């Protein structure tokens, strides 16, 4: 079928892991009731966004893959007969962890994983302390509902990542996300940042001729150190079509569960009228491999 029904679960998290997982599961079940074939969860959906501080004991939260979360959500995927996109704090070896998206197939098996490639290091987003950059490249994951180009949060700002996924045959770009307002920024700066986040991803949809699914967390999470005023995650999850058109937009400050129908045939239709891949000058892009052109 041309139509793919994609569910999104935008939620506010607490420090109670079991409560967070239960909330995600409830959202997944609701999506299934509304006809979802694929459900996407937000970045690091089992807990708080712990990267506001640098604390070695936080590494105790990391888990292996396969592990407890993939086992739990695998059983749920098998029960409900749908594909899930998870976002987990992966423990690969002592002192070696990744921010990893995992795709669970309908039968509960792991279809594939993607380790976040671009790792930020900004005030309240100290991810380099916790996450080793991904080493699996930009390869889509084949599933029973199609070939999924899964990326994670900070990857959203890099057109190269989206383009490489598209060139490898991704049918949809998916971004589990945890991004929000720094509490001391003025309102106009907050709005500029949220708009830039949306514009960038809608741009990925346009120049690749692909649907984009961005699922962000919502709610306020305090800074445990008290150095900043904490992060108010701006929600605003959305689905855009292959011309960047909105198919759905979530509210900023509320939890939201929604199933959106995406017409996959439109990808081919749009690429025929806007043949950007045909007109790319691949013979002239060598300098993209340089850090900067002096």
What global shape is seen? Answer: globular
CATH topology: Nitrilase/N-carbamoyl-D-aminoacid amidohydrolase
Measured distance between first and last alpha carbons: 50 Å
Number of domains: 1
The average pLDDT score comes to 97
Alpha carbon gyration radius: 18 Å
SSE class: alpha+beta
* Top CATH class: Alpha Beta
Biggest sheet strand line-up: 5-4-3-2-1-17
Which CATH architecture would you pick? 4-Layer Sandwich
Largest sheet: 6 strands, mixed
Oligomer: single chain
Fraction of residues in β-strands: 25-35%
CATH homologous superfamily caption = Carbon-nitrogen hydrolase
Bin the helical content: 25-40%
Q: H/E element string?
A: EHEHEEEEEEEHEEHEEEEEEHH
Please work out how many helical segments DSSP would assign.
6
Number of strands: 17
Your description of this structure?
- The strands form four sheets. A six-stranded mixed sheet has the order 5-4-3-2-1-17. The chain has a six-stranded mixed sheet with strand order 8-9-10-12-15-16, with helices on one face. A three-stranded antiparallel sheet has the order 11-14-13.
- It is α+β, with helices and mostly antiparallel strands.
- The protein starts with a strand and ends in a 15-residue tail after the last helix.
- It is 25% helix and 30% strand.
- It has six helices and 17 strands.
- A hairpin with a 2-residue loop joins β6 and β7 (125-126).
- It has one domain (3-280): Nitrilase/N-carbamoyl-D-aminoacid amidohydrolase, CATH 3.60.110.10.
